[in-house]
Amino acid sequence: MPNSKATFETTSVIISTHEISRETGLSIEAIVEVVEHGIVEPEGDAPEYWQFTGTCLCTLQRVSRLQRDLGLNWSGIALVLDLIDQRDQLQAENEALSRRLARFESR
After folding, report:
1. What angle, 0 to 180 degrees and rounded to 10, lies between the N-to-C axes of helices 74-105 and 28-36?
2. Residue 4's CB: how many other CB atoms inside 10 A?
3. Any idea where the domains of the chain sit in the sequence?
4. Is-contact 37 72, C-beta < 8 A?
5. Backbone dihedral angles phi then psi of residue 43, each to the nearest 5 degrees
6. Which stretch of DSSP H or E encloses residue 15?
7. pLDDT of the residue at 11
8. 15-105: what fold?
9. How much is the pTM?
10. At CB < 8 A and 24+ separation, what contacts does 85-90 make?
């Protein structure tokens, strides 16, 4: 899950496509392309009815930064986000293993 400075439960917040556009600086057309690439999955049948979670907002903020700062295309952004998720998972596993190892070393 992407890091967020927000203090709300990111999976329960519902945000419209227009609010997402305003918060991220992405055009509606860009948001549609991101959804078509499977980077985020809103609820609803069409862009005007889509509802996004706070988690989607965090992801789309990252998407916006990756596109703006690095000039990546949607496929590149999807790859980067997957790699970030894998890194985060490996870090969590490493921390858990380090804690287990520390318990054995302290005996």
Report:
1. 60
2. 15
3. 15-105
4. no
5. -90, 150
6. strand 15-16
7. 61
8. Multidrug-efflux Transporter Regulator; Chain: A; Domain 2 (1.10.1660)
9. 0.77
10. 88/1
